[in-house]
Backbone:
């Protein structure tokens, strides 16, 4: 609760779990490809359910290397599910990225994707977009996906508190000794406020 991203990350994880449960996913034994896995914070969501989790990332090697414009070295229709968590806003070529997600899925396979509707600029290594609900649905449907559900994770009241907290943190970290002492209880208080203002 003392991390400025705590509420957002807890809400995202809760939302992912609810979505998986709502749709009865994943099924034991499924192969899941994580497109932009980073340090793989969500791997256990799938391996604990008896699934094979294959991570792909910019820093990956071999079959798991994501290189913009280049096909992932995995066969067509080799995944029961493809997951993409907080990656899409960093992708310039949506046709390539979503095309690869589509190519890797078996017929009847599923895509679970999360991205930003509103967030501060955060290049990692790049940052290109934010979506409205209808805009994101349109991007996916234009590329051959059928959208079954869309769920918001953190509402506008909590987002405004999150943005204020990021500003306070930026200022307080620059003040020697007193800044960190003030920052710790402030972060906890602001996270509590976000919990109370979830939607």
Residues:
């Amino acid at each position: 609760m003392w991390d400025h991203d705590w509420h957002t990350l807890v809400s995202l994880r809760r939302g992912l779990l609810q979505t998986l449960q709502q749709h009865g996913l994943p099924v034991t034994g499924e192969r899941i490809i994580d497109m932009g896995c980073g340090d793989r914070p969500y791997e256990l969501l799938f391996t604990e359910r008896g699934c094979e989790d294959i991570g792909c990332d910019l820093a990956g090697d071999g079959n798991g290397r994501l290189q913009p414009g280049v096909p992932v070295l995995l066969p067509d229709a080799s995944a029961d599910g493809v997951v993409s968590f907080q990656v899409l806003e960093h992708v310039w070529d949506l046709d390539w990225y979503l095309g690869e997600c589509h190519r890797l899925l078996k017929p009847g396979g599923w895509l679970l994707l999360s991205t930003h509707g509103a967030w501060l600029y955060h290049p990692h290594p790049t940052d290109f977009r934010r979506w409205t609900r209808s805009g994101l649905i349109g991007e996916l449907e234009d590329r051959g996906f059928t959208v079954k559900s869309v769920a918001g994770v953190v509402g506008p009241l909590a987002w405004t508190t999150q943005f204020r907290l990021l500003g306070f943190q930026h200022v307080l970290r620059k003040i020697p000794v007193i800044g960190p002492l003030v920052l710790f209880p402030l972060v906890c208080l602001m996270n509590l406020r976000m919990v109370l203002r979830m939607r």
